[in-house]
Amino acid sequence: MVNHAGGISLITFVVAVAVSIGYYQFVYVPQANAKPQLKEEILEPPESTHVDIVEGSAIPSQVKNFVPAEARGTIEISNRVIWTNKDSVPHTVTSDDGYVDIINGKFDSLANEEGGFVMPGEEFEFVFTKVGEYPYHCEPHPWMKGKVVIVENFA
Ligand SMILES: [Cu+2]
Questions:
Q1: Least C-beta-crowded within 10 Å: which of 61, 70, 144, 145?
Q2: Shortest CA distance to 81 belongs to which of 113, 123, 39, 29?
Q3: How far apart are CA 109 and CA 55, in angstroms?
Q4: Which residue has the higher pLDDT, 19 or 103?
Q5: How much is the average pLDDT of 69-92?
Q6: What is each CA distance from 87 to 51, 70, 99, 120, in whole angstroms?
Q7: Alpha carbons 130 and 89: distance in angstroms, whole number
Q8: What is the pLDDT, as a whole number, of residue 29?
Q9: Is the pTM of this model over 0.85?
């Protein structure tokens, strides 16, 4: 009698553990790791904000490099920023404070899978999925400084 009851409670215990592990592995963990659901307009904004890296940006005495130095985008509309290197030397677009976007990762052309430097005539693009201010610079030419400001959409 005692043994039989013990057997049932052991089975109950094993089942309960299996259910908890299953819940943790297949329900809790996937939910905890899932990226937040963001609106399509944030992930794929219909418009882009443009910044030029102008000719002569590598010259320390030249005041103009990232133009405009402060680029403004609106979330859900133009929170994708595209930098075009119109200079004759490679540059980078690198966050001052190591900002990591929850969807698009590190705000740094050097962290980009295509290789890092924005070569002459090429573009670098980054989609900011959150309203905020994002100061950045160029790694080899630290006097090149810019800022992206992504503002709320009041439309
Ligand atoms: Cu540069």
A1: 61
A2: 123
A3: 19
A4: 103
A5: 98
A6: 13, 19, 26, 6
A7: 31
A8: 77
A9: no
Q: What is the Å distance from ligand 1's center to 102 Cα?
A: 26
Q: Contact at 8 Å (CB) between 98 and 65?
A: no
Asked whether 139 and 124 are in contact (CB, 8 A), the reply is: no
Quote the ligand 1 centre to 95 CA distance (angstroms): 13
Give me ligand 1 centre to Cα 141, in Å. Answer: 4
C-alpha pair distances (Å), 51 with each of 19, 46, 71, 84, 147: 54, 17, 7, 6, 10
Phi and psi angles of residue 127, each rounded to the nearest 5 degrees, phi first: -105, 115
**pLDDT beyond 90 at 128:** yes
